[in-house]
Specification:
Immunoglobulin-like; single chain; 2% helix; 2 helices; binds copper (II) ion; 6-stranded mixed β-sheet; 5-stranded mixed β-sheet; 488 residues; mainly beta; globular
Length: 488
């Protein structure tokens, strides 16, 4: 059975919950009738009636606490980094009261969950942003089961620390395990995020680094220099963290010999693809982006911002082992955690070897492939991902918001062929839908640099305006996004 095994998540501050009044912001219909625009169907309505599970989150600015490694530029949910893990059972109606104590407007996006459009949390696309001092109630049915995360979708707020894991528990997992841990990777900025052009001009060192995803991997390509700036891909990060801890103070996952341990890995970073490896232990990949796959055993996997993998590990070789998250496109020290059983947990952990098998998307076989994506698509979009001349990131030559919607209709089998004309990888994320990519079902997929090509297929079964974008926050902020709009 599962074990909620709370991690030693560092509570950076025991802050008081803000005492603001609850003012529910109305969720305006922002589509409206516009002359010349096609008619848009109504989105599905959020669930009615009482919620099965209710909680609240406070988005706020913690006091500066240098010992905890946060600065005034770090903004958090409930003063924790990452935000609190939310857990519900599959099928529950889940309600979250979000109180905005930030000096800026905000929203929350429930990454990967195909909920109703008004609850999707994209400012000025699915809802009016929540003003400073105001509140908004998100309500949705928690399905399907899986490992997800939630985060701000306003500007560069995600890179201030406004994210947390969300687990929807399945009633009967297809893999057996004795306990589980959620493992959230992040690139910790520790300063106020800004467009990459501003980092480039302030002379801070760091930046890209190089590093491929290796043969058979999913990413590929150097992650650094672009368009004359070494900061075109990612800002200068202070550290990579796992569950909020830097490599100097790694969290410890202590288990018993013989345990089968399920890890729920989340890449919540804003701009970093990460290679994950556990010394001495193969990883049996059981879920991709929350969706169950036929278990496939590898020594390592890479994942981009917004992707998740679950893996089961057998604790059958007592010792103290390092779980390592290495930046694929950065040169910060790896994020580290300690996995220990039947041994002295204070001894220096054995580090992963540099050799072994790596997961490729072609290894993933969804246990429940999508229905309705076989055969010829009803709509096909050929999408080119590229860099603009002055720091923008483009989809078919356009930088959002100066970009055309992609029109689809309910019931369509939609295909998007993506081709990457830039040298850096792009983790492309579709809101409101899972898509089929090869034999996998996912919501985020890495399109490798240097003419990497990826095709996704999905069924248009959730009317509304849905964001489709790069999950490198800095690429998103510089235009790499589109609205996919249902029309009649
Ligand atoms: Cu990108």
């Amino acid at each position: 059975m599962t074990d909620r095994s709370p991690l030693p998540r560092r509570r950076v501050l025991q802050g008081l919950v803000g005492a603001g009044t609850v003012a529910l912001a109305g969720c305006a219909n922002l589509r409206g009738a516009v002359g010349g625009e096609p008619t848009v169907p109504d989105p599905r309505a959020p669930p009615e009636g009482p919620a099965d599970v209710s909680t609240r989150l406070r988005a706020g600015v913690p006091d500066t606490d240098s010992t905890a490694g946060v600065s005034g530029s770090t903004w958090l949910y409930d003063d924790t980094y990452p935000g609190p893990e939310l857990r519900v059972s599959e099928g529950d109606v889940f309600e979250v009261d979000v109180h905005n104590d930030l000096p800026d407007e905000t929203t929350i996006h429930w990454h990967g969950i195909p909920l109703t459009n008004p609850m999707d949390g994209v400012p000025n696309v699915t809802q009016a942003p929540i003003d400073s001092g105001e509140a908004f109630t998100y309500k949705f049915r928690a399905e399907p089961a899986g490992t997800y995360f939630y985060h701000s979708h306003v500007g560069l707020q995600l890179d201030r620390g406004l994210f947390g894991p969300l687990v929807i528990e399945e009633p009967s997992p297809h893999v057996e395990y004795d306990r589980e841990f959620t493992v959230v990777f992040d690139d910790y900025l520790g300063r106020t995020p800004a467009p990459l052009s501003e980092f480039a001009s302030d002379g801070t060192s760091d930046g890209g680094g190089t590093g491929g995803m290796g043969s058979g991997g999913m990413g590929g390509g150097p992650g650094g220099m672009m368009g004359g700036s070494s900061f075109a891909n990612r800002p200068p990060y202070r550290a990579l963290t796992v569950n909020g801890a830097s490599s100097e103070s790694p969290p410890t996952f202590e288990v018993d010999e013989g345990d089968r341990v399920r890890f729920r890995f989340v890449n919540a970073s804003s701009a970093t693809a990460i290679d994950v490896q556990l010394a001495g232990h193969p990883l049996s990949i059981s879920h991709a982006d929350g969706r169950p796959v036929e278990p496939f055993t590898v020594d390592a996997f890479g994942f981009g911002s917004g992707e998740r993998y679950d893996a089961v590990v057998e604790a059958n070789d007592p010792g103290t082992w390092e779980l390592r998250g290495t930046p694929i496109d950065g040169d910060e020290p790896p994020a580290r955690a300690v996995f220990t059983y039947g041994a002295d947990s204070t001894q220096s952990p054995t580090v992963p070897s540099s050799t072994g098998t790596r997961l490729s998307y072609s290894n993933l076989r969804a246990r429940s492939p999508l229905d309705g994506v076989q055969g010829s698509p009803d709509r096909t979009f050929d999408v080119t991902l590229s860099a603009g001349d002055s720091g923008q990131w483009l989809i078919n030559g356009q930088a959002y918001p100066d970009a055309d919607p992609m029109y689809i209709s309910e019931g369509d089998h939609v295909r998007i062929n993506m081709s990457n004309r830039s040298p850096v990888l792009h983790p492309m994320h579709l809101h409101g839908h899972f898509f089929q990519v090869g034999d996998a079902v996912k919501d985020t997929v890495v399109v490798p640099g240097h003419m990497g090509q990826v095709t996704i297929d999905f069924v248009a079964d959730n009317p509304g305006d849905w964001f489709f974008h790069c999950h490198n926050l800095y690429h998103l902020d510089a235009g790499m996004a589109r609205v996919i709009r249902y029309v009649e």
